[in-house]
Each structure stands twice: as structure tokens, then as C-alpha cells.
Amino acid sequence: MRRNSLHFTGLVLFALGVGLATSSAAEVGAWSEGDRARVRLLAGGIDADGALQGAIEIELAPGWHTYWRSPGAVGIPPQADFSTSSNVGDIAISYPVPSRYDDGYAISNVYEGRVVLPLTIAPGDGPVSLRLSLDIGVCEEVCIPEHFDAALDVGMGASDAVANRAIAEAWKAIPGPAEPGVLAVEDVTRHGGTDKRPEFDVALVTPPGEPIEVFVEGPTDWYAAVPELVSEGDAPVYRVMFDRLGARTPIDGADLRVTIVTPDRAVEQKVRLD
Q1: Fewer CB within a 10 Å sphere, N or C end of the chain?
Q2: Which pLDDT tens digit goes with each residue over 160-199?
């Protein structure tokens, strides 16, 4: 059984599909083709902070899905490597809100159809050569690991209107910062459990009467269950259990990342455990 995320994500991904389908400009890379997916790079212009805006576009075969940065109970997180790129510094990847997928045995966090992951790239002086090595899991009833190599050369002062528009639409699906007193985490407390499977209560403030969906992530060696609503109202509390079997990251001082989704927006907030 599938259950899509709140309508916020669906509207943005539909808009992305319309914008990207018409693009044939130089700042859109060639497709890297796989068995059940294909991948390409996009590059826009330089933003107000001096960063080059780009994106990874992933298009999936009908009925197939791939995974968010935190896959959930099952799945393969994306592994992106730009280390062979030239004339670039740091490259940050942003992730839109996923949908939850229930196959009857486990619940995972997925993307279906098409997803565009915005990139914030620190450019050097002169033309930029982007080289991406990407490994993702692509699943229907079975899961297939897929590898892609994508490339894009971006000239000095390059700016493509179609790529810019697609990247701008992609950013609309990215969670913004918390809105204190309106849409945010108020507190995180340890509820119980064991050190191998600790439980935490995440207290939120949310707009009155709006449905919400919550994703909670821990360090990369912790595995989060789906948060359970334990107290309703405009200050709801969600309880989340982590599987820390084999984890090396200690509980004290660990950061949790909480994504709160409403029908029209999403926010993301990091909270440090005391």
C-alpha cells in the first residue's frame, strides 16, 4: 500500500516535470541511462551569495521508486561523489520531502516518478566541470542497485533560463528553516527504551487545525522508526524509536534532524541531544 506525503510535494514535482520536459539547452547534461532510471545534471546561474546553482535530475520508470537520504526501515540511501569534478569547492545536495511507502512489511521514504535534487556549488575561477558518480537503489517488487556517471561542463558566465527555472522550482520542494512559535520543534526529551533502542518524544508547535507529517533522522549509524503521534492538538508530541545496534555515535551530543510537513510548506530543524 502506498501513502503519498502531503500535497505540498506533489504540486512541486508536477511543476518540475513540465519545466524539464522542454529543456534542450547547453546547461542541461546528457542522460546517463540505467535499467529502470536515468540521471542528468543541470546548471543554472550564480546566486546572490556567489554560489553556482545546479541540480541532479533522476527520472524513474513507471512503478519504480528510489530512496531519500534516510531510507527508513529498508532501502539504499543515495551515494553521490563529485570528487572528480574540476574547478569547484564544496557541493551541497538538498533533498525534497519524500513520500512514505508501505509494502506491507516495512515503511520506507521514497521518491517516485521524477525527483530533482538542488545543488549549491562553490565555483572556482574559470569554467566548471561537474562529474557525478551516483549510486542509488531502484525498487518495485525487487530492488536493483544502479550506478550512473553524469557530466556537465559549465562555461564562465553561463546561465540557462530553462535550467534556472527548473532549479528554482526544485528549491520550492526543499524544507525551509523552522518558524519559531508557528511551525517548529519545541523540545526533545528521552522517553525511555534502551541505549541500543532509545525512544524520544519530539514536542512541536504547529498551525491550528493543519494536518502534518513528521520525519525524524539521527546520525547516519542510527535507524529511525516512523514517528508515532502520542499527544494531539496544536502542540503535538511524536515519539520516535531509534535502532542503534552497532552504532558508534553516542547519544549525548548527537543531533536529530526533524522535518515537519504541512499541505503548503515544510521546515527542517536540527536539535542536539543533551
Answers
A1: N
A2: 788 888 899 999 999 999 999 999 999 999 999 999 999 9
124 and 144 share one domain: yes
pLDDT in the model for residue 233 = 80
Identify whether the C-beta of residue 222 lies closer than 8 Å to the C-beta of residue 249. Answer: yes
Exposure string for 42-66, b = 16+ CB within 10 A, e = fewer:
bbbbeeeeebbbbbbbbbbeeebbb
Average pLDDT along the chain:
90
DSSP reduced 3-state for 139: strand
Based on the domain organization, do 195 and 113 belong to the same domain? Answer: no
**Rounded to 10 degrees, what is the CA torsion of 242, 248, 250, 254?**
-70
Q: Specify whether 66 is located in the same domain as 77.
A: yes
**pLDDT of res. 19:** 40
Q: What is the pLDDT of residue 159?
A: 67
Structural domains counted in the chain = 2
List alpha helices for 77-118, DSSP H. none
Residue 228: give the domain boundaries. 177-272
Counting other chains too, the contacts that 231-236 makes at CB distance below 8 Å and 24 or more residues apart are: 234/205, 234/206, 234/207, 234/208, 235/186, 235/203, 235/204, 235/205, 235/206, 236/203, 236/204, 236/206, 236/212
Cell triple for 10: 506533489
> Looking at the structure, do residues 169 and 55 belong to the same domain, yes or no?
yes
Using one digit for the tens of pLDDT, what is the confidence trace for 53-95? 999 999 999 999 999 999 998 899 999 999 999 999 999 999 9
Length of the chain: 274
Give CA–CA dist 16/174, Å, rounded.
Answer: 13
Q: Are residues 50 and 169 in the same domain?
A: yes
Read off the pTM: 0.89
